[in-house]
Design a protein that fits this description.
Pseudouridine synthase, 20 strands, 7-stranded mixed sheet, single chain, 5-stranded mixed sheet
Length: about 270
């Protein structure tokens, strides 16, 4: 992030995080466009994961210490695909104890590193798709598309358990967020101002509302407006200028995030 800020001479931030051992796509915003990041949190994320069976680490990744070893039973690809199908849809998942979730006001990973017992409650997460890429020896590669709050490390742990063994991730790469794909991304040191995607384009899943100047002034002043439009979030233009995001509820449009001037997101 610091490289990008220095290169473009702008302040910025990023949406979501990647585990230290992981690679792949990270959405970065510049300027006040970062205020739109909450709207991106619902986008499904796609990962390619490599799962090492037979060994579980305390962190569920290659940076931890091995805490359990279990022989891998004879497995066929048909059996693995059957197990993976069982994790598609809404599932219950226990997050890793080495995570940023808070337990009584403290980060779980801080408690775990200090040797304290960490017990995290199961929570519902969503897995849209889960497919086997390859299986050789004790190494299983899969691709998954998951919703907000899903830990792929926990998913890998649970897959290994369902296969009659234990396991941990040795590689994890985020390949997509929504329709943004890593194959179209650039390294921070390669990005130029010409690569910046305007906010109104980045919010591609939202509807479009165009207001005339008179109605637009009311909207920009925070007024709620009666309007005939679908429920949900919309990108709003006043005349030819994109001004921010509004939300329609029960036929009423209200401002959610406004821009004082044209800003962008990359």
């Amino acid at each position: 992030m610091n490289v990008l800020q220095r290169r473009l001479k702008v302040k910025g931030g990023y949406e979501g995080t990647l585990d230290p051992f992981a690679t792949g796509l990270l959405l970065v915003g510049v300027g006040k466009a970062t205020r739109f990041f909450p709207f991106f949190s619902h986008l499904l994320k796609e990962y390619v994961a490599t799962l090492k069976l037979s060994e579980e680490t305390d962190t569920l990744d290659p940076e931890g210490e091995v805490v359990e070893t279990v022989p891998v039973p004879p497995l066929k690809e048909e059996k693995i695909r059957e197990v993976l199908k069982g994790f598609v849809g809404e599932i219950e998942q226990i997050p890793p104890k080495f995570s940023a979730l808070k337990v009584k006001g403290r980060r779980a990973y801080d408690l775990a590193r200090s040797g304290q017992t960490v017990r995290l409650k199961p929570r519902r997460v969503y897995v849209e798709s889960l497919e086997l890429i390859s299986f050789e020896g004790e190494v299983l590669r899969f691709r998954c598309r998951v919703g907000r709050g899903t830990y792929v490390r926990s998913l890998a742990r649970d897959i290994a358990e369902s296969l009659g063994t234990v396991g941990h991730l040795i590689e994890l790469r985020r390949t997509a967020v929504g329709r943004f794909r890593v194959k179209d991304a650039k390294e921070p040191q390669e990005i130029t101002h010409g690569d910046i995607i305007p906010v109104e384009e980045a919010l591609y899943w939202m509807g479009t509302l165009k207001l005339d100047d008179e109605v637009g002034r009311k909207f920009l002043n925070g007024m709620r407006l009666r309007i005939s439009a679908p429920e949900g979030f919309h990108r709003v233009w006043v005349g030819e200028r994109f001004v921010g995001v509004g939300r329609v509820t029960g036929g009423i449009l209200k401002p959610e995030r406004l821009l004082p001037r044209r800003l962008s997101l990359s």
